[in-house]
Amino acid sequence: MANRLGLFATSALAVSLIAGAAHAQGASNVIEELVVTAEKREQSLQDIAVAVSAFTSEKRDLVGINSVADLTNFTPGLQYSSQLDRISLRGVGRLTNVHGADGAVAIYSDGIYTSSTVEAGKTPLFVDRTEVLRGPQGTLYGRNSIGGAINVISKRPTDDFQGEIRANFANYNRRTLEGTISGPTPIPGVSYRLGANWDKQTKGWIDNIVPGMPDEGNVVDTKYFEGQLKFDFNDNFEGWVKLSASEWNNGGGGPGSRATWTPAPFPTLEAANAALVLNPGYGCSGKVTNVVNASPMGCVNPALTDPRKIASTVPYKVRLDDTYSLASEWTYHFADMDLKYVGGGQMYHYYLDGPTPVDHTAPITAYTLPGGLVINPRYAFNYQEDLRWVSHELNLASTSDSDFQWLLGAYYYSEAYEQPTYTYLPDQAQASGPFGLPGTFCAATGGICAPQQGRRIYDDVPHLDIKSKAVFGQIDWQFTPTWKTTIGLRYSHDRKSGYEDLRLRCFAIAGCFAKPELNAFIPGGIPLIDLTQTPSVVGAPAPGTPLPKGVTSYTTYDPTTGFAHRTYDDSWSAVTGTAGVQWDPDSSTMAYARYSRGYKAGGFRIGIDTTLGASPETAEETVDAFEIGLKKNWSTLQANIAVFRYNYQNAQVPLTVAQTAGGLGQANSIFYNIPKAISQGVELETIWQPINNLQILFNYSYLDAHVTESVGTVDPVDPSALDPLARPVGTTTSADIFTAGLPGGGFQRGQNLAGQQMPNAPKNKVALNANYTWDFANGGSLIASASYLWRDAQYGSIFNRAYTRSPSWDQVDARLTWRAPGDKLTVILWGKNLLDELGYEGGPGAARRAGSNYNNPLLGQAQTNFVEGIASSYPLTAPRTFGLELQYKFN
């Protein structure tokens, strides 16, 4: 890092010296004021007592902020996974895509809450300004803003006719075409804006070496359309409405697609676990007959030598249909106050197809077990999100010049969603039946197993209805010319209710059988059984026993479909708010101290990877945040600094119960609430314009987000706590047959996690940009811009281990922008990650690869348990990309 930072600093200094020879420093070199609406009224960024990072469309074009990932580079404390569409601020974020659990950073697109961060990644042509409010926003935003909030404000219709077309051509055969027109309509007081975007990339960042299989990694084909109307009815009443539509027909690109690097060897487990692949007893040793391997490298993982190569026999596909968004804003201006209604909603249906496990699918496409059973291990999944929600907010805010300002509001949000997920064996006819041992494994339905179509092994359909209501108010009192106080309160009530339907079956999985050595791989072995209708297997409580918290019915079984069914219902409420003081000793200085309390409702971990678990509900999260800040303007320098400390309670962390006994048992995915954690740090944002036309941006943040209290948690990757860094605190009765005989092995051991760093919270981040503008006599200009980015190591789990750690990384970007005289034509030559370094969007996910050899006992061959190691999947940033962008404005 030091050498590259020094090189960047030397280049920036050279630009400064060259610029200094051409321009003398003058009083006109003043940093422009930026107006934001972070507290639901227009204020200067330097006057608002909140840590806010704001990005206008012009700034984004100048620096090269074209995506949410780019936004994280220049926003202290902000982290985002483009693959998982998860975002966090200051160590407070979302660690699961289960919609029964909410995000921690609220995304508002034109005042309408959305559960996806995709809206914040729209191009600068459509977005006027993006505001990132760091820290709990429990008063004015409330819903799921325990970590912060992101406001995305669209460009609005104009009173004069104007338009713009942009085209971008980049490597990997990426092409983007977009345009907008705006102006008045024949109806007096009504103006419009229309826009469209098309983005297509056909060559992936990840090369699939299997013949006939497509590349992956940002292979996209997306379309976006929007239309707006603005109404100026009279001097007192105005309105605005926007309707937009989206469509994705991507290959291996977009949220949910493959974007990880798994450098471990190919999984070589028994033909029993999720991948249905080979074990050392068979596998590449040749003990299995008729092995068909589609990979030119055989059993060698290409990712061992190249992080952007895979050998996958099941491609990813991402699709988005029926996506419509509505946003509207209606304001009536009274003499000293405004009444504003903000309402709208969204609906979409998202589809994701891919391999499971989600790292590198085994290159084996077929093999024959002893006894003649042919295994076709192409194991795939289908994941969907079918969501609809509406949002209503009513505000009444003062507008006078009084020293006493106030705002009152009411909020209502309603969402209905389904999140169906299933895994299946597309090439295995036996996966549809008939079933073996129906009397044993379908006892709940009289020993009769329902038929199954589609060769599905796991099939889960959760449905939830979510209602959120709130009332809030905030007052600001300027009690002296230099001192102001702010007090705000919000009452929130959240309710979630719904159901889950589940079917779980086993095909050729030894651990599913009572005596696998007799049934799994010998002649006459039974390949398919149904587990759902066996209460002891899925973990359903027996009638008459206490139900788990949030579960409102005992599990029932439908003999016609084979699904198990149960219902959920619970509610949460909280009073949150803020209190602070602000000191303005002069017109260029503002200091503040603020306390905020944040809240996020509890939820359910249902769907995706659950098996009707015994503890599906999680408690609500709360944060008590203390922050002091200073915002200072000099004539050529602007510096904003914030120091904060959070007391964070009940952070919601998804954990998977470890498979330790060789079978499925009651293993499932659960929510775990970390009792206590601390997030504290320092954030600095500066803009320096030492001479005319030269601007230097420098951001630095230090973040210490760690667990302070958590005892007894079992690491699914290391259930016996054998890692040298583990701190075991005891044992459980659950066995771990895979580590039996090892020191400390043979059983599960919980751990003391005090001091462990929170997931996806790098301690240090640096962003540096220098840009210089040459103004030509004919009215044109040339802007050179270069950025250096560095991010510290981070973990992907509350278990800080080598297998969950991503190393630090850095990146160099550059842009050259030419603007023709008249400012109609702009040409941008750009490059990102010019040194083609590996960057990491977060810490890796990790999984233990353990299995058993179930050889033929009739030949005297015994069962052998083994652990092949731990596979870490690192979420990578984009490789080196470069291109040419053309912009043309007309009026």
UniProtKB/TrEMBL annotation:
Q: Which residues form the TonB-dependent receptor-like beta-barrel domain?
A: 323-834
Q: Report the subcellular localization.
A: Cell outer membrane
Query: Where do the TonB-dependent receptor plug domain residues begin and end?
Result: 45-149
User: What keywords does the record list, in alphabetical order?
Assistant: Cell outer membrane, Ion transport, Iron, Iron transport, Membrane, Receptor, Signal, TonB box, Transmembrane, Transmembrane beta strand, Transport
What PANTHER family has UniProt attached to this entry?
Answer: FERRICHROME IRON RECEPTOR-RELATED, TONB-DEPENDENT OUTER MEMBRANE RECEPTOR
What is the species of this protein? Phenylobacterium conjunctum
What domain of life does the native source organism fall in? Bacteria
User: Which InterPro entries does its entry note?
Assistant: Beta-barrel_TonB, Beta-barrel_TonB_sf, Plug_dom, TonB-dep_rcpt-like
Provide the taxonomic classification: Bacteria, Pseudomonadati, Pseudomonadota, Alphaproteobacteria, Caulobacterales
| Similarity comment: family membership | Belongs to the TonB-dependent receptor family.
* Protein name per Swiss-Prot or TrEMBL: TonB-dependent receptor
